[in-house]
Design goal:
The protein contains 19 helices and 3 strands. The two termini are 60 Å apart. With 471 residues, the chain is mainly α. Keywords: Membrane, Transmembrane, Transmembrane helix.
């Protein structure tokens, strides 16, 4: 049954459906609008419009009316402020030589939210504007997926910080790129499957197929929203290996605080890059990771494998908080998608208030936490070293690490000794007397054995694929 009672609107729509080869109810909305204008002129009778809205497929948040104008205006203003704050943070950081490009990504996300609520407000004045309705759905669903992708990038940086060897391998990076590519396909699939039924008449079988595609995409979006937490859990389930602990990492030692009002010293990152001109090959190709500690404990400067206290509780909390709230929104939308009811039979989970809470209030709070929590500092990874530094050609690895100047001149911030320095044998010149031709130093075998042992440990850095140092 398409209608609970046989009204004039129901009879007219039955006639139109028969003339259009019997399409499924709720499809071809754009075609129906054009035919209604041909029959009634510019103004479509409200009763006919109300009937068709009631028989449309249920949407998360329903179809807007005059009551949606106020909340849409509120969230347009709220996300406009969020976009401005993200751009302002990026601008201040950029002028100081601190390049955190994800801030622009979040600004783009906020603009998408503004556009989405703007389309919803415009659609509330005239529900016959099918193209506006489709744009509204796209710009309300897609931003959440984009936000999850940025969350996954943050989780990826946490994973690489904890597992620098595994997190820098081509296999790991290719897996992440494949995941992002799949997400692009999911977004495309969601948009197409959601839009086509509104644009064209479909048979019952075709309409069910499109609804099944939307259901699949809803499940994939739920799973994708959990990937960042899953990646973090994976990094803590597997403890760092000996290779991870021994591998040198390039950390932003010039960041001294995560305070909301703190900004890095101007050009500190560029000054740090210059110090690498005096470092050896391994240092210039060290793995770039986020700051190693909260800086409430021992602050690590320069290249070191003594990373201090490995707690990132606040950073982990920020990602988990955002993941839970986005996950709730994905679940609520999936409930509506799987209910498979028409708009007039909408369940309470699809109420507009629920939608505004999930896609409006929750995501606004997440952005506030990101800005106040200074994710631009917590998840900042040093930039790739300039070409003039990377292209320096040095001799084969020295057994001793170079001593680059650092701000760590004070006793409280001393650079940890290198592996070679820790194991270098004490040499007495008396042991090496070559006055007699053809003789070897008396203790040569002792030093050779010890040097071979040290060299074996140093080779830990390069015994794997050297490509891991170029990410």
């Amino acid at each position: 049954m398409v209608s609970h009672e046989y009204t004039a609107s129901h009879g007219l729509m039955q006639l139109l459906r028969a003339s259009n080869n019997g399409p499924a109810a709720g499809t071809g909305n754009k075609e129906n609008v054009e035919q209604a204008h041909n029959l009634f002129g510019t103004i479509i009778p409200p009763s006919l419009l109300k009937y068709n809205i009631a028989t449309q497929n249920a949407l998360f948040g329903g179809y807007p009316d005059h009551k949606d104008v106020a909340p849409c205006a509120v969230f347009i203003a709220a996300f406009s402020i969020i976009a401005i704050l993200h751009v302002a943070l990026f601008t201040i950081n950029y002028r100081r030589g601190h390049y955190f490009w994800l801030s622009l990504g979040w600004a783009f996300y906020a603009v998408c939210r503004v556009i989405g609520f703007g389309f919803r407000m415009k659609w509330s004045f005239d529900l016959t504007e099918t193209n506006t309705g489709i744009a509204n759905e796209v710009f309300l669903i897609v931003p959440s997926i984009i936000f999850v992708s940025f969350n996954l990038i943050l989780a990826q940086r946490l994973f690489t910080w904890r597992h620098p060897v595994g997190g820098s391998r081509k296999l790991f990076w290719n897996t992440m790129f494949a995941l992002y590519f799949i997400v692009v396909l999911v977004i495309t699939m969601t948009i197409v499957a959601s839009a086509v039924p509104y644009l064209y008449f479909l048979s019952e079988h075709a309409f069910e197929s499109y609804k099944n595609v939307v259901k699949v995409s809803a499940i994939l979006i739920i799973l994708y929203s959990l990937t960042s937490v899953a990646l973090i859990a994976l990094s803590y389930f597997f403890k760092p290996t000996t290779k991870d602990e021994n591998l040198y990492t390039y950390q932003p030692w010039w960041i001294e605080s995560f305070s909301p009002l703190y900004f890095p010293r101007k050009n500190a990152a560029q000054e740090a890059e210059e110090t690498f001109m005096k470092r050896n090959h391994n240092h210039r190709h060290a793995i770039r990771v986020i700051a190693a500690t909260h800086h409430h404990y021992k602050m690590v400067e320069g290249l070191t494998n003594q990373r201090g206290n490995l707690t990132h509780n606040v950073s982990l909390g920020i990602i988990c908080f955002s993941t839970v709230l986005i996950f709730v929104g994905a679940i609520m939308r999936a409930i509506i998608v799987f209910s498979g009811v028409q708009n007039r039979d909408m369940i309470s989970a699809g109420d507009p208030v629920v939608m505004y809470i999930c896609w409006g209030l929750f995501e606004f709070l997440i952005n506030v936490v990101y800005i106040v929590g200074r994710v631009d500092l917590r998840f900042y990874r040093p930039d790739v070293l300039p070409a003039k530094v990377r292209d320096i050609i040095t001799a084969e690895q020295s057994a001793f690490a170079s001593h680059a100047p650092s701000r760590a001149g004070s006793a409280t911030h001393s650079v940890a000794p290198s592996l070679a320095e820790s194991y270098a044998p004490s040499v007495d010149s008396a042991d090496f007397n070559f006055s007699e031709v053809g003789t070897m130093p008396p203790r040569y075998s002792d030093y050779k054995d010890r040097f071979d042992d040290d060299k074996e440990r140093l080779d830990t850095f390069t015994e794997d694929n050297e490509s891991e140092f170029h990410f």
